[in-house]
Amino acid sequence: MNDPLNMSPSPTTDNRVDSLDLLESHAIFILREVAAECERPVLLFSGGKDSAVLLHLAHKAFAPQGIPFPVMHIDTGHNFPEVLTYRDEAAQHYGVRLLIASVQASIDSGRVSDPGPMGMRNRLQTVTLLDAINEHGFDAAFGGARRDEDKARAKERVLSFRDSFGQWDPRQQRPELWHLYQGKVNPGEHLRAFPLSDWTELDVWQYIQRENVPLPSIYFAHERDVISRDGMWLAVGEFIEARPGEIVERRVVRYRTVGDASCTGAVASNASSLSAIIDEVSTSNVSERGATRADDKFSETAMEDRKREGYF
Amino acid sequence: MPRPTRDLLRFATVGSVDDGKSTLIGRLLVDTRQLFDDQLDAVAAASAKRGVGDLDLSFVTDGLRAEREQGITIDVAYRYASTPSRKFVIADCPGHIQYTRNMATGASTADLALVVLDVASGLKEQTRRHLCIAALLGVRNVIVAANKMDSINWDRGSFDAVVADVHALAEKIGFHDVLVIPVSALQGDNVVDPSAAAPWYNGPTVLSALENSPSGAWSSQHSGARLPIQWVLRQDGGGRTYAGTLNGGGLHAGDEVTLLPQGVRTTIRSINGLRGDNTEALPGLSIDLDLVAETDAGRGDIIATAPLPQVTSEFEATICWFSDQPLRPGTRLRVKHTTRSTPARVTSVAGHLSLDTLQSLPTEELSLNDIGFVSVTCASPLVIDDYSDNRVTGSFVLIDERTNATVAAGMIGRPAFTTL
Predict the structure, then answer these.
(1) DSSP string, B259-325
(2) Which residues form the domain of A283?
(3) Distance between CA B406 and CA B335 in Å, rounded?
(4) Nearest C-alpha of chain A: how many angstroms from B153?
(5) Alpha-helical segments (H) within B141-297
(6) Measured between beta carbons, which residues in chain B are less than 8 angstroms from residue A159?
(7) A300 with B42: Cβ contact below 8 A
(8) Residues A40-54: what's their mean pLDDT?
(9) Could you tell me if residue B404 is inside a domain?
(10) pTM for the full model?
(11) Same domain assignment for residues A188 and A60
(12) DSSP annotation of A293
């Protein structure tokens, strides 16, 4: 019996198409499917590199028209000033409406308790996020999460169903075959959509370089006053102060991820260009979350536990 | 500086529960140094905490709390790896029958199936089920790891018996030249490093077989070009272009195309690609097309070249049923096919696939995880190809209209290996 499937030329062996082209096209496909099937999508935008790439892809998916949904920043109140500046500039650059949902407002209204001025606010974001989704009536929220980030994320569908309490149930995920993304939900339920699911950290950086995607300056090497804690370099400032015995040092660092300023660490790095960052990322021995996120070090299943509650 | 690769292989692990799929993937990732130090430390710490040795390799992909507690895989884990010659997307699928829908999810986008079986127990029913599903999904390339060779002291006779069983089944369902490799995932024999334990085997290791198998088979099609329209873009100056992902074949400016189901023949004025190219479009890429004719084209319509797809509201299909509620003829559902959704009814169930004989057995209804042969009638016409000609226009899912759950995966047409 002959086997024509194996003999016909295929796109991935066409030497004019590389893996970044396929990832880009697939992400744009997902963005359009969700925008077409859901009533009120929103794009969650932290100002980090992954959401920067996502916003850029959303722009390309609908150009020359504008992006047909707003972007929303879940603001922990613990921000790097460079990231807030970038957030506002990016929203203007891509001509998109920016919504801000504030963790501080959730604390002030008594929805969550205040962890204190130096406390981590990462987990509190879940309440603020779910309240905002509810308040605006969003039925789909795009996120920049990637499966290579964490072992719980590695299990998640591209379109991830959330019940009316915002919960993720990893035992009851919808089958998701081929590229048939079905985004129907009942009122009160919503979807999380992850167009960058199959991208790796290296893919993200290579795409940023190829497309000249603008980024916050803290991704590039710069001098900063830092202390060493739990194997990370933490920036001393409004949200982190040196404890007795900790020594404040001036060091050349950069951020590999951008999150809540009270629990995101910097890495020692001289990489001041995209090429240097790509070299650094491709030879690193430590994962990006392992290197930079205190909140993932609490327990074996920290990310899964947060995600079940409705985290990004 | 590393450059984006042109060679990408997507593969899925398939086979029965406890035969060692996750352990094999863990071994492959650890021995090719794909894991970061902190990830390896975390696997070691989780292993120690549960008293399962220094390093339980299955914990590399079994990342959920319940998976580690129960020692099984519940849902697909996607992992990414690269070697100097190739980039891999790995879907580590669950083996348990209860999670067959998750296995089908992982295998539906795979170029290759890496079948893992316990050499001591041979081809179990669940392994046969997975192989049949992979074959139905159109996976053409298969590598079989005959695992746990250490448990039978690398007995050649037992291995040869498994090879014979695998070849007999593979021949029936249309897999050719299936490579069977004697492996111990636990001890690392013939996964990345060749084993000294089986001097009688001189074939490749699992890694070497993965690096040398054809890639891109999933996207291979032999229909004409197909562009299911996702979105209509209004261009500056008043024109409209039709956006979607192209598959089945390439397109050039000036090509004659047909808009379906309308049946309007027209010509491509220009093509907009994502990288600014505007005369040629390649399959697999997202594009938008400017057509010469004024049309009322919209989402759900398809722009195609010859040989043209069929426009019909009735078709025969092979489905995998994923719901606890049995499927009975007459059940009203919703079908999602390409970018179009419409109410549909399964009008008749002609039979279900027997995993023992690979024949169709008559049945009144389909139960959870059954593979069945059905007739579908839709409320509005679909633009379809046979699944064997085009996986995009040949596939669909069925959705429960009340819960929105995806209850079936469907492939238009009947598999070649069974007769009704």
Answers:
(1) EETTTEEEEEEEEEETTS--SEE-TTSEEEEEESS-----TT-EEE-SSPPEEEEEEEEEEEE--SS
(2) 217-297
(3) 10
(4) 34
(5) 156-173, 206-212
(6) none
(7) yes
(8) 96
(9) yes
(10) 0.92
(11) yes
(12) B
B37 phi and psi angles, rounded to 5 deg:
-55, -45
Q: Which of B184, B219, B254 is the last residue of a domain?
A: B219
Calpha distance A167→B58 (Å, rounded): 26
**Residues A24 and A46 both lie in one domain:** yes
pLDDT along chain B (420 residues), means of 10: 74 90 90 84 85 83 82 87 88 88 92 94 90 90 94 95 94 87 95 93 95 72 90 91 94 96 96 85 93 94 96 96 95 96 96 87 93 96 95 96 94 80
Task: Say if A149 is an interface residue toward chain B (CB within 8 Å).
Answer: no
- Residues in B closer than 8 angstroms to A282, CB to CB, are 1-2
CA distance B411 to B417: 14
Q: What average pLDDT score do residues A61-85 get? A: 93
Are B12 and B145 in a shared domain?
yes
| Domain CATH for B377 | 2.40.30.10
Asked if A212 is an interface residue toward chain B (Cβ–Cβ < 8 A), one would say: no
The rounded distance, in Å, linking the Cα atoms of A41 and A70 is 8
28-67 in chain A: CB under 8 A from chain B:
28-29, 32-33, 35-36, 60-65
- A12 domain residue, yes or no: no
- Residue B84 carries which DSSP code? T
Q: Tell me which chain A residues have a C-beta less than 8 angstroms from the C-beta of B288.
A: none
Domain assignment of residue B105, given as a range: 8-219
Nearest to B396 by CA among B325, B328, B343: B343
Q: How many domains does chain B have?
A: 3
* ipTM given for this complex: 0.92
Based on the domain organization, do A157 and A257 belong to the same domain?
no
CA distance B68 to B16: 18
Distance from CA of B29 to the nearest CA of A (A): 13
Evaluate whether residue B418 is within a structural domain.
no
- B175-187 burial string, b = 16+ CB within 10 Å, else e? beebbbbbbbbbe
Chain A nearest C-alpha distance from B210 (Å): 16
A33, A51, B78, B364 from A154: Cα distances, Å: 22, 18, 5, 39
Q: Which of B4, B138, B283 sits opposite A11 (nearest CB)?
A: B283
Assess whether B329 and B291 both reside in one domain. Answer: no
Chain A residues lying within 8 Å of B248, measured CB to CB? none
Indicate the residue of B38, B214, B406 with minimum beta-carbon distance to A286: B38
Examine residue A96 and state whether it is found in any structural domain, yes or no.
yes
Question: Tens digit of pLDDT for each residue in B253-267?
Answer: 999 999 999 999 999
Would you call A300 an interface residue with chain B, using a CB distance cutoff of 8 Å? yes
Residues B236 and B375 in one domain: no
Number of domains in chain A: 2
* Same structural domain, B186 and B143: yes
- β-bridge pairing A190-193 and A98-102: unpaired
Cα–Cα distance, B12 to B105 (Å, whole number): 10
Query: Same structural domain for residues B171 and B107?
Result: yes
Number of CB atoms found within 10 A of residue B374's CB: 23
Q: E strands of chain A, at which residues?
A: 41-44, 71-75, 98-102, 140-142, 159-162, 190-193, 222-229, 232-235, 249-255, 266-268
State chain A's maximal CA–CA distance in angstroms: 76
Q: What is the amino acid identity at position B303?
A: I
- Best of A151, A208, A232, A282 to substitute, by most chain B Cβ atoms within 10 angstroms, is A151
Which of B240, B273, B304 is a domain's end point? Answer: B304
B108 and A64 within 8 Å at the Cβ level: the answer is: no
A199 and A253: one domain? no
Buried b (16+ CB within 10 A) or exposed e, A204-243: bbbbbbebebebbebbbbbebebbeeeebbbbbeebbeee
- Answer yes or no: is A155 within a domain: yes
- Which residues of chain A have a CB within 8 Å of the CB of B235? 64
Q: What is the CATH number of the domain that holds B64?
A: 3.40.50.300
